[in-house]
Amino acid sequence: MFLQTAPAQGSTSNAEAMKHMGFGDLIHNFDALGWIVFVTLVVMSFASWYFIIANAIRNAMVRSRAEKVIANFWNTASTQEAIRELEAQPKGEPFSKIALDAASAVAHHQQASANGGRLAESLSRSEFIDRALRQAVARESLRLEGGMTLLATVGSSAPFIGLLGTVWGIYHALIKISASGNASMEAVAGPVGEALIMTAFGLFTAIPAVLAYNFFNRSNRMTYAQFDEFAHDLHDFFATGSRVEGVAPTQK
Fold it and tell me: pLDDT tens across 91-144, in order?
C-alpha cells in the first residue's frame, strides 16, 4: 500500500498568503498617503473617461455634419437664405459659426462704410473679413481642445502616481516585516502584492487616456484643416463676391 503524504506546512502557508493579495486587502491596509494616491487615481480615471465619451460624441457630431453644412451653404440660392440655415444649426456646430462670423463682419463693415466710420478707413473689407475668420477659427479650434490637456496629464502622470503608491506600500511592508522579524512568504506576499496593485491601477488609468489623446489629436487636426479650407473659401466669397472653386450663391 502507498502512504499518502501530507502537504508540506510551508506550501500550505504560502497558499494562504497568496489569498491575501487582493484589492480588498489593499483598501484595508491603506494609510493617509495610500488613500490620497488611490483617490487621486480614481478621480483621474473618472475625469478622463468623462472627456473620452464627451469628445467622442462631439467629434462624431461635428464630422457627420461638416460636409452637409458646407454643401448647404454653397448650394443655397442666396446668401440670406444660407445665413438663415446656418443660424438654425445646433449651438455647438463650428462650421456654421465660422460662416456667420464672416457674414457678420461683412455687414458690420458695410454699415461702417455707409456711415463714414473710421473702421472702413483703417481696415479694408478683405482685411476685416480675414480678421473675423481668424478669430472664429481660433475660437472653434480651442473648443475642440476641451479635455485634451487633462487626457495628456492623466496619461503622463497616472503611472508615476501609481508607482508612488507601490513604493510607499512596499516601504511600509518592509517596516512591518522588520518590526515583526518574520520574513516568511506569508508575511511578505500580502503587503508587497497589495502595493503592486497600485502600479497596475495607475497603468489602467493612464492607458485609455493616452490612446484617447492620440486619437482625438489626429481627429482634431483633420477638422482644423477643414476649418482652414472653409475659411479661405468664405474669405474669397465675401471679399470678392465669388468663390475661387465651385459655384457660390449670389449675394442679394
Answer: 888 999 999 998 888 888 777 666 665 555 556 778 888 889 999 999 999 999
SS (H, E, C) the chain: CCCCCCCCHHHHHHHHHHCCCCHHHHHHCCCHHHHHHHHHHHHHHHHHHHHHHHHHHHHHHHHHHHHHHHHHHHHCCEHHHHHHHHHCCCCCCHHHHHHHHHHHHHHHHHHHHHCCCHHHHHCCHHHHHHHHHHHHHHHHHHHHCCCHHHHHHHHHHHHHHHHHHHHHHHHHHHHHHHHHCCCCHHHHHHHHHHHHHHHHHHHHHHHHHHHHHHHHHHHHHHHHHHHHHHHHHHHHHHHHCCCCCCCCCECC
Give mean pLDDT, residues 161-180: 80
What φ, ψ does residue 88 adopt, rounded to 5°? Answer: -85, -5
Of 35-49, 78-92, 131-145, 146-160, least confident by mean pLDDT is 78-92
pLDDT band at 20 (very low <50, low <70, confident <90, very high): low
What is the pLDDT at residue 23?
54
